[in-house]
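Q: How do we represent a protein-ligand complex in a form that can be generated cell by cell?
A: Start from the inputs.
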Amino acid sequence: MPELPEVETVVRDLRQAGIEGRSLRKIEVFWHRTVAPLAPTRFIAALQGQSIRALERRAKYIIFHLSGGSDLLVHLRMTGQFHWALPDTPPATHDRLILTFDDGRRLCFRDTRKFGRWLIVPNAQTHLAHLGPEPLLHSFSLAVFQDRLARFKRRLKPLLLDQRCIAGLGNIYVDEALWTAHLHPERLSQSLSAPEIQALHAAIRSVLRQGVRNRGTSLGDGKPNYNGLDGRRGKNQGILNVFRRTQEPCPTCDTPIQRMLVGQRSTHYCPRCQPLLRNPGKKPVIPNQRSKPLLPKGSRALIGRLPLTPALPRAGGREE
Ligand SMILES: [Zn+2]
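Then emit the C-alpha cells for the protein with zinc ion bound:
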C-alpha cells in the first residue's frame, strides 16, 4: 500500500503538473464503489464546474481543496495510481475514474484492485481530525512522540501502523524504522528507554525522508503497486534493509532477515540487531548508553555501526 512517501510524491507530481487552479470540465466514473457512498451521478454533479484551489497531503490521503469550499479526499489504498490519458481515447481496463480539466488534459485514476476511494467532505481537516501527527513536520518533536508512545501502550509494530498514533506510516517504513532503531517489532512501547525513543523518532523521520527523496517504494516485479504520475517506479525499493528481504543477510551483521506475523501483518526484522528483551516492563539495557549523542543528525549509517551488545568486561586480560 502506498504510504506517506508515495502519496507525497503523487501530490508533488500533481502540483508540478499544474493541477492547482484548473477547473473540472468533465468527470467520468467507471466503478461506482470508488466514489461510494455517493452514487456516481451525485458525485459528478458535486464536482462539476469546480476548480482545484490547492492540493495537499495528510497522512495517506490526497486532498483536493475545491473552489466551492468542500474537499475531495483520495485514498490510493492498495493499487490506486494516477496517469494521463490521451484525448478521445476510451478508458483502459483498470481506469476507475477520469477527470478532464479545462485545458483538455485527462487525469485517470487506475486501480487494479478497486480498493481506492474518492470522498467529498465539507472539510478535510475536520474529517481527518482523528489522525495522529505528521511525522515529517517540525512540530513532530521528540516530546510529541514520547507523548504518543505513552498514550498508546502497545507493541511497536501495530502501534506505529495505527494512523491515530502517527499518520502516514505503513508496513514498509515501520519495518525499516524499527530495524534502523534496533528495536524488535514486538517490544512494548512503554518499555522503551529515553535513548531508544530518541532513536526511533529519528529513524521514523529518516526512513520517510529517504522514501520521499527516492520518490517512494514500488513493489512487485511486473506491474508495480505504485508509480509516480510520469508512470515511472519509485527508487526506494532498491535500498530497503529488511522489508521483503527474508533470509537475505542483514546489512549490518549478515544474520539472515526473519519474517513473522505481528498483529496479522507480515513483519521483517534482524533477530540479532533487534533482540526482543525479556521482562519488557523493566528498564532495558541499552547498548552504548553512555555515549552521547546516541543519534546525531542523519545517521542511519552510524546506527548501523553501534555495537549490538554492551562491551563485556575482560576476564584476565583476554578477549571474551
Ligand atoms: Zn543485523
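Helices lie at 4-16, 40-47, 124-127, 142-151, 156-161, 171-180, 194-213, 300-305. Residues 284-320 have pLDDT under 50 and may be disordered.
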